[in-house]
Design goal:
The structure is a single chain. With 141 residues, the protein is mostly helical. It has a domain at 47-138: Cytochrome c-like domain (Cytochrome Bc1 Complex, Chain D, domain 2), CATH 1.10.760. Helix content is 52%, strand content 0%. The protein has helices at 2-20, 37-44, 48-64, 88-93, 96-105, 126-138. Helix 3 (48-64) packs across helix 6 (126-138) and helix 5 packs across helix 6.
């Protein structure tokens, strides 16, 4: 019990000592000009191609597979099965605009299956979506 009181007293002395020490004056903040919006936008999407590849690998491969054959780990449980991007017939049957719409708005956005999720966050990144479209197109080659 006595040890508790001693510890409590020592703690109290430490708190008081910290509160009584002189504080260093903060250096005056340097004035900086705000970053222009255009520069912020450039930083946000510095490399659309790299971001597109990352998005495909993180969001699309689960169902469409790394090579785009529609054989990702999550595809087994889906009906209808995910699109096989490597098929020339499918590639010839769709426009880039159709692929863009399905990426951003999901399957229901183009009258297809609701199992293809929407990516509304990409609506503000058209250059990244365009790179995903190109990536999907290149899977057929």
């Amino acid at each position: 019990m006595r040890i508790r009181y001693v510890a409590l007293i020592m703690f109290g002395i430490g708190v008081v000592a910290l509160g009584c020490t002189p504080k260093e004056e903060a250096a005056p903040a340097e004035e900086t000009a705000p970053t222009p919006v255009a520069e912020v936008a450039e930083v946000a999407v510095a490399d659309p191609k790299a971001e597109a590849i990352e998005i495909y690998e993180n969001r699309c491969t689960v169902c469409h597979g790394k090579l785009g054959k529609g054989d990702g780990e999550g595809s087994a449980a889906l009906d209808p099965k995910p699109r096989d991007f490597t098929l020339a017939e499918w590639q010839d049957s769709v426009t880039d605009e159709h692929i863009r719409k399905i990426i951003v708005y999901g399957g229901t956005g183009v009258g297809k299956s609701a199992t293809m999720p929407a990516n509304p966050d990409l609506d503000a990144k058209p250059e990244v979506v365009q790179e995903i479209v190109l990536y999907v197109r290149n899977l057929a080659k």
